[in-house]
Design brief:
Helices cover 23% and strands 21% of the residues. It is globular and about 45 Å long. The mean pLDDT is 91.
Length: 208
């Protein structure tokens, strides 16, 4: 576990990105299989009909075995797609089996922009999110672009909204004792690693 005391968010981000990029291809493949075992039979995954996830980049844990499993189950699968304008906006678009993807401006594969296949994020059942770091209190440190936080900003004022369930996916080496949070950060309900589930605990009492 990484101790965050004395580290700024940019410094912590650099350290954690180095940790995950330092994993070998064999370690990455094994982590992807273990992540699949953690999630594929879980009731949250099995009950969800509309699932958004991501394609791995920069050492992120690979959710593609989960994507393939979900497609075999007949679930609707969505990937994040960046808007051409405004450039700070991200939407979630349904993908079809075998669909050709293209790299976006960050080099991450995504489908061709198609509004007819896009879904408002609050109508999804499950959102599997990439992250740079996480803690036991639902904290998530992203890459710094703010795309997920902007997409989920409605949760700060729509208090009765419970969709989608927010799960962060990570390697165990990305765990931090306590993340320094910003006012716009959206908490995860749990972080799932190749080793175990880290369900959100209260920040003051330590209780789940």
């Amino acid at each position: 576990m990484i101790i965050a005391e004395g580290l700024s968010r940019p410094a912590l981000r650099r350290l954690l990105r180095h940790e995950r990029r330092n994993l070998s291809p064999t370690q990455q493949r094994l982590a992807a299989r273990r992540l699949h075992r953690q999630l594929a039979q879980h009731p949250l995954f099995r009950r969800a009909r509309h699932i958004a996830l991501y394609l791995p980049n920069d050492g992120e844990i690979d959710p593609r075995p989960l994507l393939r499993a979900a497609q075999k189950m007949g679930k609707a699968i969505y990937l994040p797609v960046l808007n051409a304008w405004p450039r700070t906006r991200m939407v979630f678009q349904r993908i079809l089996p075998g669909e050709r993807l293209k790299p976006n401006r960050f080099g991450i594969a995504e489908p061709e922009f198609c509004p007819a296949r896009q879904q408002p994020v609050w109508t999804l059942d499950l959102l599997l999110m990439p992250l740079v770091g996480f803690d036991e209190h639902g904290g998530r440190l992203g890459m710094g672009g703010g795309f997920y936080d902007r997409s989920l900003a409605y949760r700060s004022w729509r208090k009765k909204s419970h969709k989608p369930t927010l799960l962060g996916l990570a390697h165990e080496c990305q765990k931090v004792d306590r993340l320094p949070l910003a006012s716009w950060d959206i908490d995860l309900q749990a972080a799932v690693t190749d080793r175990c589930w880290h369900v959100k605990r209260d920040r003051t009492s330590g209780e789940a």
